[in-house]
Amino acid sequence: MFMSHLYRNQKAVSALYNKNMFHFSKVLPNFINGEFVQSKATQFFEVRNPATQELITKVPQTTEAEFNEAVAVAAEQYKSWSQTPLLERQRYMFAYQDKIRKNMDKIAALITAENGKTLADAKGDVIRGLEVVEHACGISHIIQGETIENVARGVDTYSYRVPLGVCAGIAPFNFPAMIPLWMFPYAITCGNTFILKPSERVPNTSQYLMELLNEINLPKGVVNVVHGGFDTVKQICEDKTIRAISFVGGNKAGDYIYESGAKHHKRVQVNMGAKNHGVFLPDCDKEDAINALVSAAFGAAGQRCMALTTAVMVGETKNWVPEIVEKVKELKLGNGAESGVDVAPLCYADLKKNVLRLLDSAVAEGATLPLDGRSFVHPKYPQGNFVGPTVIDNVKPHMTCYQEEIFGPALCVVHVDTLEEAIELINKNQYGNGTAIFTKSGSAARYFQNNIECGQIGINLPIPVPLPMFSFTGSKRSFGGDLNFYGKNGVKFFTQFKTITARWKKDQDAGYKVSTSFPVMK
Ligand code: NAD
Q1: Structural domains of the chain, ranges and CATH numbers in brackets
Q2: With a 6 A CB cut-off, is 125 part of the ligand 1 pocket?
Q3: Which residues are the active-site residues?
């Protein structure tokens, strides 16, 4: 009902953006038991197009009764879904990856409409999520258990990985497709049922992903979507049925979810904020490194948890700042739906205010702005949440713009004399999501790799987000929990061990005698 006739007659991806082709629900329904159902909400969040401020849809704050109904449906469906053979569950993922692939342009256009990012970037958002769905098609070797025969005489021990029950996901705004797809495909292929709370800023993409689940005839109630803000998060954390929570977002929300989820006896994984440093050694391939820096700092207008937001210029590379600035100046700002755009508007107006606050603080605290985008107004989209690309030079670690995540099109530049100083700077930073080094020296790269306290390291590449045969291994204050997202860890997160110790005695074997001492294997 929501978007099934949405994209008729489309010719090109950018044509999908034409507002006449989007028939968004005025008020977004929840997705419960395979049906799109309107909420009886009295409170709503507005979703506006980031370039035009056009009201796209209103998102309900799901009521307590509706939330409870979604959980009850998921718990009921768990009984049969958890008993569905793994190969059958994987087959749904095979069908799903095909659906996503075929509808990639539509999903990308939808992402651009509500998140604002460029269509090319939105396509990347879908592809990185799709890779996780593809990986979920083949988890059988990861989900296998362990066995020891004859662990004692006549006794065997074997462990199965079994699902947890009803699991939940809470998603951020910056990857409307990829991050929900980090969550429910693994959870359900492992045999769990799922409650998803998309970001209230970009809920339409998740809604469409649910339409595609219906199109592959996934049993009703295996995945459910409840919309809302903090109240829904609180309900998820405190619910007695939900067994695990996957969260991606900022540290304030992540800390709350980690603490409250754990307090309410749930398994929790939280991927949180970041400050990613790129270290530039004088011997690196200069042009390649500057291109990588500019792409990774300003792509998605800096709204990526793996954006390379801080350049650490070592030694004589301090002289490269004017060239970096010239390269940044070439970036074209515009509506993400239009071709040739490099930097789109920020997703929502309050984020723009926060970015401007941090840029102002940089000036007030003594940094310099060789490129200042604070007053940029797009002539065609004067209402858009644009901030012009900004380079903040001479940043010092105590400055607010360094301490806080900017999440906008701004690059901090710090100068140091040696690689050791660069490593010390990065290791002192609270975050550990990602970092990168640019050098032609294998030994310098190896020294960096061995001494840096960051979970994901790029060597001569800027955004080292691992593919799902690995896991997303942010660390320090960028991650809370034990088991990371996707890959082997993703499967482990959504399963638990059940261990059986069995003794089958032969008729002639002696039985146990009564013994009150602790059993010891013989
Ligand atoms: P956010 O924390 O504002 O929102 C994320 C989710 O939490 C939303 O669903 C929202 O409804 C909910 N929420 C918001 N405030 C809350 C609160 N106080 N208590 C409980 N729940 C709350 O994050 P965002 O602005 O949507 O996303 C940007 C942040 O996410 C950045 O910090 C970015 O670095 C981080 N992020 C991290 C990763 C990663 O893998 N490490 C990936 C993407 C984004």
Answers
A1: 19-273+478-498 (3.40.605.10), 277-453 (3.40.309.10)
A2: no
A3: 305
